[in-house]
């Protein structure tokens, strides 16, 4: 049966997180198509990964037979994350914008899972796997907006996931998520609601389409 890798990184629980509500909609639609399938859920906020250090990094460039106990333990985690990615038929990643970029917990996952010669390099092991990124943000950084040049989430993730790992990347972008709680953005609430509703609809549609494609 099909396997979905779901990665959440929002600091907030689903009731207060735009990205989690969309990944939840994606998961629900996916499970409706694959009730007997597998969902691997990594919640990087409640169970954060260690940041990549010299021990874990050096282990990827040395003979496993020469690894110290510390290298063995550190590299075992990297292998576990790589295997989760490799066995996934589809991936959905929540990437809320924090200070113009991705959460540090998501960056830690990327640093750990990117292994040159395996998940990255000339023949990435998960090449072609469809990845849906939920790139939520409190304002708008779309082309033509005043803060277009501050968009470092989609640009970065397109480069690393597609360019570096060969994954087939698509984005869902719920924006203006701060409008309901920021009086200065009150006039933007209708636009936020439209964006929110579209994001949920897109998540369900994409999940269903991917599930049907895999079942064909």
UniProtKB/TrEMBL annotation:
EC number assigned by the record: 1.6.5.-, 1.7.1.17
Reported cofactor(s): FMN
Residues that hold FMN according to the record: 10, 17-19, 97-100, 136-139
Entry-linked InterPro entries: Flavodoxin_fold (IPR003680), Flavoprotein-like_sf (IPR029039), FMN-dep_NADH:Q_OxRdtase_AzoR1 (IPR050104), NADH:quinone_OxRdtase_FMN_depd (IPR023048)
Co-factor binding comment: Binds 1 FMN per subunit.
Signal sequence annotation: none
Family membership: Belongs to the azoreductase type 1 family.
Quaternary state and interactors: Homodimer.
Function of the molecule: Also exhibits azoreductase activity. Catalyzes the reductive cleavage of the azo bond in aromatic azo compounds to the corresponding amines.
Official protein name in the record: FMN dependent NADH:quinone oxidoreductase
Species name: Streptomyces sirii
């Amino acid at each position: 049966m099909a396997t979905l890798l779901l990665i959440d990184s929002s600091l907030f629980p689903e009731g207060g997180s735009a990205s989690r509500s969309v990944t939840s909609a994606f998961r629900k639609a996916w499970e409706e198509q694959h009730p007997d399938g597998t969902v691997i859920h990594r919640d990087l906020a409640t169970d954060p990964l260690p940041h990549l250090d010299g021990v874990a990094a050096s282990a990827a460039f040395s003979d496993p037979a020469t690894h110290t106990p510390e290298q063995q333990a550190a590299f075992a985690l990297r292998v576990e994350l790589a295997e989760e990615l490799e066995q996934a038929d589809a991936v959905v990643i929540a990437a809320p914008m924090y200070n113009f970029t991705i959460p540090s917990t998501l960056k830690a996952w990327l640093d750990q899972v990117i292994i040159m010669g395996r998940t990255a390099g000339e023949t990435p092991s998960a090449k072609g796997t469809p990845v849906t990124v939920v790139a939520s943000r409190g304002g708008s950084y779309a082309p033509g907006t005043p803060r277009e040049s501050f968009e470092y989430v989609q640009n970065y993730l397109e480069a690393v996931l597609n360019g570096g790992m060969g994954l087939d990347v698509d984005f869902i972008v719920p924006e203006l998520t701060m409008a309901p709680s920021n009086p200065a953005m009150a006039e933007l609430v209708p636009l936020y609601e439209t964006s929110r509703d579209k994001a949920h609809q897109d998540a369900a549609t994409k999940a269903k389409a991917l599930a049907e494609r895999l079942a064909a």
